[in-house]
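quick one, 581 residues, struct below
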Amino acid sequence: MSGEAIAQRIVRGRLVIQLLAAVVIGFVSGLLAVAFRFLLLQGTEVIWGAPYNLVAAAQGLPAYAVVSIPVGAGLFLGLILYPRAPETRGAGVADVIEAMVERGGDIHHRTTFYKMLATLVSLSCGASVGREGPMVHIGASIGSAVARLLRVAQEWKIVFLACGAAGAIAATFNAPMAGMLFAAEIILIDFQVGYLSQIAVSAITATVVSHQFLGDLPTFDVPSVSLVHYWEIPVFLLLGLLAGALSIVLIKLISRVEDSFNAGKVPLQFRPAVGGFILGAVALWCPHVLGVGYFTINQALGTELIPALIVTILIAKFIATACCVGSGFSGGIIAPSLFLGALIGSLCGLGVQILAPGQVDPTSATLYAMVGMAAMFSGTTLAPITAMFTIFELTYNFEIILPLMVGCIASLTVVQTGYGISIYETSLVRKGVSIVRGRDVNLLRSLKVASYMESDFESISQSLPLKQVVTMAQESEYPHFVVHDKDKLMVGMLSMHDLKNCLGEMGELAYLVLASEIMTRDVITITPDDNLEKAFELFQGKNISTLPVVSVYSPRRVKGVLKKSELIRAYSRNVLRFDVQ
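---
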């Protein structure tokens, strides 16, 4: 058998293993999504007495109970849970992207349990957040665990993480295409067609698991709709523009809440309780803000809400969502986006029916609500294709594709031109994590200096005479020396460039001039935990070919050296995919 045939067989075998791994990831993600939904219903029933309709439940409870329930949840999260697992704070999707960019797709094992617990507590107690974001985090952690178990290459570790995210979304919304596109459009910053098979298999498997336990019914109750008149297209465009503007409002409002907590120096452990108090106070005025809000979304889709009530719920939901997300409740932003979009669209549809009576279909308000959901989803996440297919898979009605496209692209355009980044990237930027769209950059970010530095390096004492330094340089294959003191701590670097400047003193002064007098004292260093992107930035524009790699805890304790030549070889192997001999 020829070498080429053997290589092809190895590639095919690797693909089979990857697909089987995707099945396992999708299966476990689907099971966890089903288990999470069951536990959430049980928790909500225990706390509120009604697992589905929190509006009626809150109206039947005394005011102190409506306020104390979310406050109690906030105290539990802030004082007990988050100190043990601080990474479980927040939405989840941004954390998955950060893990992919900063840690090469590694998510801690304990994240799965603690994230599920934090989100169950948050949603069971009525937090105005969604369950989709945390489920993405949980699914991604499963993908990360499988990747570590199989010891796959760095590239496929990220793909397995995306497989878990796709499975979580597919099982949550009963929408395999939406799950697959979510992973491709949001999680995988640098998507390649070669990843699609694994992600699709995971999404399909998770959906089958969800169907087995929950049935194949869609997440929302959507009446039959149709686009009757094409003159409504400009109205859908205006709806998309409005949704885009409100997406920016929501993103900025959440950031404003976080800034207010920081400015007021509110301790992290008490912020969820403060957010819970505000949520409870708002719920006394408008109980529709409690929980994921699917009940109210179905009311909007069924045109059961009057315009005045819609406006009230909209204002209350903006406040409640911003306070819950900004204070650190564990939950996602997708469900609130769909909630707000459904109300905006329903209000717009009812307005069109009033302004053009008899000219539109009686179910037009439902169509406008669906377009509003997709447009708001598109605006907050900057993922228009995922938004379109999420709503499309509720009905599989091709007549709504055109309105969905118009609304989503309009919303996307407003956010891109008026703000620039998604709600997830906003969260990351505020944490100091920069997201660059480019496969090369993000791959370099996932590669650590520790894997490419040389621990066996040459060093000399600062008191070594010039004569001996020159002799060592002549015998060395790579004459770059770390100069150390008597305690073996770095005091400088010495290279051939430094030696050239003093070769004229090789006469009588050869034993009088010391290494400390000719070395470079202002040394640029890097740590083992830094990534190769930073290394490239440090080398760029500087006449150096070696970086000392120093301890994170002791900046003069040298652990090794990173050569520019090795950095280029690492780039070639991992990015250009060929070895430089």
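The first helix runs from residue 3 to 48.
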